[in-house]
Each structure stands twice: as C-alpha cells, then as structure tokens.
C-alpha cells in the first residue's frame, strides 16, 4: 500500500490541521461538479436525459396521487394498462438511507450530486488506504470523470450512476476490514453497500460483488498460506453481517422486486411457441430454452467488440459515439456536405448496434494502471488485474461465446441482466484504483521490503546499510518501472496508429447512407474523417502519457517535489478526461427550464382530456411501447420500462402488434393518437369500458391455447379462462341481458364499482390481473377473483345490486417496509458505534504517537 505521514506528524498536528486537506478536497470536488454542470447550477437549465424524461411521464400518476393523498400509490394505470410502481417511483418510509444520501450530496441538484458523490466516494476509498490527500484527489478524479460516468448521465441512467458512485465505499470497507481494522472496515462496508443497494441498480451491484468475490478469494488463499484462516473467517463473517444489514435496509425494495420479477419480462414466458420478431422488442424465445432469465440473444445484443477494448486508451479508435459532430475543417465539409448535416454524422464504425460513446479510462490512467502492475503490492495488483481482465471478457459477450455463454448459463443470477458491455464498470473501478496506488507508491518515494528482496536479495542482506543508498536504489527501481510502463502505453498508441493504415473504416450503416444519396466521394470523405478521429486521439494520448511520464521521472530524479508533482498529475488526469467527457455530455445537452416543463399537452392530448370519465385508455400509434409522454397525461396502453409484466409483453408481441382490434377493445382503448395533423385523435367505438358482463366462458388447458383463443375471441360476450391455472372455473353460459356495471370511484390502487344483475354472472374488468396484492370485495367481504383473456381480471358475482371493490395492498410492501425500518435503526446504531470507536482509537493513537493511517 501507500506510504503515510510519520507517526509524530500525524499525532502532533491539531485536529483541524489534519482535517483541512480533506475539507479542501471536498470543496474542490464541489467546484468541479458545479463547473462541469454549470448550465444547471448557474443558468437554471436541465440536462436533456431521455430516460429521466420517460420516467417522469410514467411516474406522474403515482407522484400526483402521493401529493394529494399523502401515501404511496403501489399501482399505476399510466403504463402498459397497469403495473406495480415498485420499479417506477415507489418510496419505502422504513428505508432511512435517503437521509444519509441527502447529507452526503450537500444539497446539490440531481446529476451534479451524482458526479460529486463519485468524486467523494473515490476519495474516501483512497484516503482510508493511506494515500495522501493530493494523490487521492487524482485517483478520485480518475474514478469520477471516467467517460462512462458522464455518458450514462447524458442518457438518464441516474440510478446506475449512483450505484457506481457508491461502489468505492464498498471496496474501501472491504480492504480496511481485511487489511487493518475489522470493526471500522465492516462498518464502512455496511454503509457503502447500503447506499449502493439503495441506488437500486442490481446489475451494477452484481458486477461490484464479482470484484468483491475476487478479493475474497485472494485473501482466502493468502490467509491459508499464512495460517491465518480463523482471523480471515472472523473478518469475513463481520463483512457478511454488514452485507446482511445493507440488504435489510433495502429489503422492502428487494422483496417487492423479487416478487415482481417472477411475473416480469425479465423472466421466461409461459408460452411455448416463439412469438414473431417485433422491432424494438426482445428477440423471440427459443421454446427449448429452459432458463429463467432473459433471452441469451437479447442479453448479448450490446456486446463490446474485441478490438474496441483499445478505446480504454484511445477513445475515438472506432469513431466515438454512433452520432458525432464534424467541423467545417472535416473531410466531409471539404467534400461539399452542407453544414446542417455535419452536426450529427455516423462516425462510429464498430460492431455495436448503438453506442452513446466509448468507455474511456484515460491515457494517464492507463499508463498508471500499467505502472501499478509493476510496483503495487502483489495481492492488490493481482486482484485489480483479475477484475479488469474479467470485466473485458464479460463485456465481449457474443464476441467471445465460448466463455460468455458458459458464464451466462451457469453463473447464478447473471442471466437476469442484459447489455453485457456494462461489465466494463468493473475495469472502471479497478484501473483507477490501481493507478492511484501506483502514483502513491512513486510520489511516496518508497517500496516495500518484499519487493526489494525479489529484485536484489543481496542488497537487502548486506549492502543497503545507508538510508541514502536505499533511497537511490528505490528511485532507480521506480524510474525503471515508470519507463517500462510509459513504453508499453506509448507502444500501444503507436501500434494503433500504424494499424489504422490497414483499416477501411467501413461501417454497417454505410450501405444505408448510399441508399439515402451519399455519393462515393462523400462516403470516402466520411471514412477519412473516421481515420482522422482515430489518429488525432493517438497523438493526444501520446501527449498525455509523455507528460505524466515526465512528471514522475523528474520527481524521482529529485527535480520536482511531491506536492507540485501530485498537483500536476491531478491536472493531467482532469484535463485528459474532461476533454473527452465533453464530447458526450457537452453544453448542447442542456435545455432551458425543468424536465417537467417539457411536458406540454399536444392538440391530441387536449382533445382527449376533455373526456372527464373516471378511467379509459389511450394508444399512441407512434412508437407506443418505447415512449411515456402519453403516460404523463393519460392511462396508456403503451409506455417505457425495461421490466413490464411478462404476460403483457406476450400480448404486445402476439396480439397488439398484429393489430387485433378486439384485444384493444377489451383493454378499454377509447382513443388512438394517430400522429396525423388532420385527424390527430380517433375515438374507438368498440372500447368495452371499465367492466362488462359476459354470456359465455370458454375454457382452455394451457397459456398457449389461451393466447390462441384471443385470435377469434369476441371479448364483449365471451371470456376465455385457462383451467390449468384456475381449475375452479368451468365452461359456462350466463344470462347477461339486463345486467349493468359502472365504475363509481377510481384511484390507482383502489377501484369501486356498482352493478345490477337479474342473474348470477361473470364480470370481466379491463384491468390487468396481478395476484400478488390485488384483492376483490363484494359488499365489503373478500372474494376470490381469477384471470381471463390472458391478462384481465374476472369475478363471478351473485344476482342483485351490489358493490365491488378492488384494492391493491401487497403484503410484500408491508413486510418489506417493516424489515427496512428495523435494519435502518440497526445501521444507525452501527454508524454511531463506529464513530465513537474511531474517536477513541484516534485518541489512543494521539497519546501513544501511533499513526492510524498506515495501510
């Protein structure tokens, strides 16, 4: 690990003097975050984030209900005809970790706070490892400004960003627990993991746990060799308790998500026959596939190209993002392409179907990472190297089938996730950490005795009697390794430059451009621009690598002291990453006003909103299942969400996408938004309303038969029920003449109806069936209900005049919230206890002259 200040300097300095560098570091991070997002902080603008805009649309009904009623809406009808709000906008009062997050973000606006947290948590990790504050700032900048962090914010993946921001706290607690103080380490681990879980991005947490597992294996092997297994097991058990506490705080969210996942499209369909391929939807399921996760082809759609790995060092190697601006000095401009087209050109020529930008770690960070492989403690470097290699292999996805298909099929839980290129977040954590440790080793001026023994046992044994001679040996060793690392990093850049002359820079989209009128001359100019983007970034990388190498070389030669050298390294890392980040999240990504202000009703919306009936549904014919703008104003047939109900997805793929009008009728689709300026809205006269009596019940024996029955079903008079799921229901006929039913009260999770019927009958409701929480009542008494027509609720009712109520009160929410509250109280006690313990430990250290920061 890194060298630390001497014991006397640590213990003799007053507390405020010891705290001052950390306070200045935090203020520096605030300034960096605010300056980067200056349009938000100083101009009152908002970041254009596609996914956040869609979230606002889908969450609007639930949020407005919570404002009025003072309690959470656990269900919403604003998307996909109805679904739980668990993964949309639900809050759990028992989870107190939100207060901790508010304290850590210092009241900064969203997005600004995300970047600040990434910097802060990265800094805390490096400080607890004993790295000096200024060097820790360089490492924190490398962690916080990695290009992927800013690219995902531009896309609106805020929860992913938060989960990544808290990951260093988890790793810091892990390392402290295993290497130094098990009590403080376990407490820090519990807090970090709690906040990481609170972000509710389980895929990022999964990748983080893979990195945790690798370290655990390495520590286990080291402990076994040293005869320290009992102590290792004690520390591991404490970390396990910390993990359990973190899971407990988020238990409400996890429990409801786990319950919902069984019914979502992240699980396997009950249907055996594969659906037709639908643009924008998951590929058809192989009927022979018995997995319970997502479809393999769907998971591997976004696989990082093997060659694209070089973008960690050279961002524009494959042309950057799918669409990039080109200047007036570009080859395309010189070839005569009008300036208005230059703002968004398809410069990307890699294998991915779309990319918001490459994963760029930084030329300086890559150089320091390579240096770390030579000079950092072996156990740490093996851990971070293994994590980086695993990260790259997983990200290759379908481009390395032999490995990744095996992992997908056998690694528990891995098949629940898609977009495997996201696995590069492991490298995004590992590479800056190893780079910061390498920088600390060089600027700290020391090297561990075990390394000296490896390099020259005789020197250690008898020739290093003089401290000056030892320092000379250390400096010579480090200079050699700095030059090695620089040569490797620069050599990779040179090889990339030379290789570029053998590329044709052709992209899959080029054929489409030709169809759209791109002449051979223009296409040649575009490919020349792609080549220029690559080669310019090679020279850029060489410049930063050379500058970083020079700083370290002159420091080791005694011509540059530690503080200026560290300051220059901070600046180099920052300028390197900042410049690339601005390519993907620049000033053009901001808009005036708030996101909410962007939801303005269209003429079609205004026409529909004149209808004041309690409940009906709207289908936007323009990309209905990938937009939530409609959901902001109406109860939508469509929506935008990555985990809709599995049965509803089946309905989309096999019925709605095939324009089955009867299915739209049974979903109470009263209005269609056409996109036609002359007739923006069409009213559907066949919409069946909120509920209706049927005269016949048909039974089938499987989900496939039930789905097939919808092809010819007349839902106004018939209902189809799968008796393999509801054996109590028999085929029957009813006298529906004279029966009537009306919705009398509507709220997202409570519906009330009044009906009159001369005979017993069966009522079908245009509401989505979801057994885990919905309970039916007739005149206040609970009664069982069933599923009909594949997705709808149905209820047998007695003759007469009665009231029907449906209430959504899932036990998982109540139980989960209670567990979260208990765990939050326990976490609070752990934090207070850890604080008291740390203060007492510091007092003892001050009294005895012992340093507490030695890693």
User: What structural class should be given to the helix and strand makeup?
Assistant: alpha+beta
Number of domains: 4
Strand content: 5-15%
Taking strands numbered 1, 2, ... along the chain, how are they ordered across the largest sheet?
A: 13-14-20-16-17
Share of helix among residues?
Answer: 40-55%
What overall geometry do the principal axes of the alpha carbons give? globular
Number of helices: 31
Structure description:
The protein is α+β, with helices and mostly antiparallel strands and 855 residues long. The chain folds into 4 domains: 1-49 and 111-264 and 811-855, no CATH class; 293-328 and 341-498 and 531-560, no CATH class; 598-683, no CATH class; 691-810, Immunoglobulin-like. Helix content is 53%, strand content 11%. The chain has 31 helices and 20 strands. The strands form 6 sheets. Strands 13-14-20-16-17 form a 5-stranded antiparallel sheet, with no helix packed on it. It has a 4-stranded mixed sheet with strand order 6-5-7-8. Strands 9-15-19-18 form a 4-stranded antiparallel sheet, with no helix packed on it. A hairpin with a 2-residue loop joins strand 16 and strand 17. It is globular. The model is unreliable at 1-11, 278-290, 445-469 and 851-855 (pLDDT under 50). Residues 267-293 are annotated as: Disordered. The chain crosses the membrane at residues 20-42, 73-92, 104-127, 134-155, 161-178, 205-224, 236-255, 353-375, 382-399, 419-439, 482-503, 538-556, 563-580, 819-839. This is YfhO family protein.
